[in-house]
Amino acid sequence: MLAFGYRLSGWDKWRFSSGRLFAGYFIPRPSTGEAVFSGNCHCRDCQRTSGGTFTPALFVPEKTVKISGAVKYYESTADSGNKISRGFCPNCGSQLFAKLGKLPNLLGLRTGTLDDPSMFKPMLDIYTSSAAHWDFMNPDLPKFPKAFQAPQ
């Protein structure tokens, strides 16, 4: 089971979220911290691992996430040369989060696992140069053809 809590910038109260998988539930646990950034990644690796046209992710400090239970990891090297470790539920295969080698203190939580994914507000689109030509992106979000340098 994965447990996490976070506060989005600009919110006046802590938001604790739970998530749901095919095989079970995430259980929320009190935590501290704030989301560092959120966005949609259109790189080919994210397309392949999500089975969709992009992966929406909410990046939070790893120290604010409490993990209990088993997680299976798959490690790869992205086209950028960045090492990526993706955490999956060993029972149903749902992708839970990713750890990026260039952002060692952050976890990219997969927003599709939230019970209320409407809480997710993407701030940007990255790797738009790899996006499917037919994929509609929110025109109001900043676009980056490759990676975005996130604060650490």
From TrEMBL:
This is GFA family protein. One of its GO terms (molecular function) is metal ion binding. PROSITE patterns: CENP_V_GFA. The lineage of its organism: Bacteria, Pseudomonadati, Pseudomonadota, Betaproteobacteria, Ferrovales. It comes from Ferrovum myxofaciens. Keywords: Lyase, Metal-binding, Zinc. Residues 16-135 form the CENP-V/GFA domain. Belongs to the Gfa family.
